[in-house]
Amino acid sequence: MTNNLEDLIKRAASDIINAGHTVALTGAGFSTESGIPDFRGPDGLWTKNPELELKAYQAFKDFQRDPKQFWIDLLDEPVKILQEWGDAEPNPGHLALVELEKKKRLKRILTQNIDNLHQKAGSKKVVDYHGNIFKLRCLACGKRYPIEKFNLDRLREKEQLPPRCKSCGDPLKPDVVYFGEPIPADVSSVSHEEAIKCDLMLVCGTSAVVFPFAELPLIASRKKRSTLDTFLSFGLSIHTPAKIVEINSDPTPLTKEGISDYLIPGKTGEILPRIVESIKTMV
Ligand code: NAD
Ligand code: ZN
After folding, report:
1. Could you report how far apart the first and last alpha carbons of the chain are, in Å?
2. Is the CB of residue 84 below 6 angstroms from any atom belonging to ligand 1?
3. pTM for this predicted structure
4. 204: CA distance to ligand 1 center in Å?
């Protein structure tokens, strides 16, 4: 088969039709067409404001040391991410995944994005691997709350920060997973399960270099054996390798190291709708 774009799109459509359990991994590239910059690209948030990157590395320690001060500083933050990202709209890539889910051709989206756009588009089975900027989370009991349940400015005025968990009273932190913070157990376990169960993984708009998220295609492709797999099989792999299909404007380490079966080069907002259309012509 030649590698021209139309052939690759048909190939992906046919792989989706033939798969028993498809999951999609998505990353920052997926939302650039919705006007949300990535962190390290030419227009990236951190490229333009390197101080924010330094802060991000400090944030988890700051929260643990003094949750009240952490929240005071956060609410003083000049970058109004919540407003800017709250106005962003899903793009045709998000809508294509909604359609695949509705047609029962996609079991789950595991996203690194924290922007809530898959949910805003209408996808139901979404795992926010790195959390969600519109939620708060209790580190003690794991409970999550929509941010609008708390009037944070009012809590600050009344000197009642930090916001507290309504179940156990512990200080709440933004749901977003910071550097040095473990991936929440519920998220980590369902993602791991999906990587083991899937026979097709669509890796869309992620450079797949941020660990442990980047392990998921390795586990699915069986290039890295999961602990559970090893335990169950006593050293013999009991799962057949999943197909790994990348949709990315550029090759990634997964492409270069032969982890992915093939790369469809292009924008997720253009390629995914074409795959969905191609499926319609085949069934
Ligand atoms: P990344 O910035 O490392 O990689 C983005 C990838 O997408 C690159 O490989 C790039 O070639 C590709 N890309 C860019 N635009 C594309 C498009 N329209 N179509 C297809 N591919 C495109 O992103 P990452 O791998 O997700 O890692 C960044 C980390 O930063 C993640 O942990 C994420 O949580 C966080 N982040 C999230 C958002 C968001 O929620 N939208 C935005 C910035 C950063
Ligand atoms: Zn709690």
Report:
1. 21
2. no
3. 0.93
4. 9
Determine the structural domain holding residue 115 and report its residue range.
Answer: 1-36+89-130+183-283
As a whole number of angstroms, the distance between CA 99 and CA 246 comes to 19
For residues 31 and 8, what is the distance between their CA atoms, to the nearest angstrom?
A: 22
Reported as a single tens digit per residue, the pLDDT across 106-127 is 999 999 999 999 999 999 999 9
* CA atoms lying within 13 Å on the CB side of residue 236: 1
Question: CA torsion angle for 166, 189, 268, 202 (degrees, to 10)?
Answer: -160
Q: Which of 50-54, 231-235, 243-247, 267-271 has the lowest mean pLDDT?
A: 231-235
Atom of ligand 1 nearest to the CA of 176: 34
DSSP 113: -
Q: Is any ligand 1 atom within 6 A of the Cβ of residue 33?
A: yes
In the reported structure, the alpha carbon of residue 186 is separated from the centroid of ligand 2 by a whole-number distance in angstroms of 15
CATH code: domain of residue 64: 3.30.1600.10
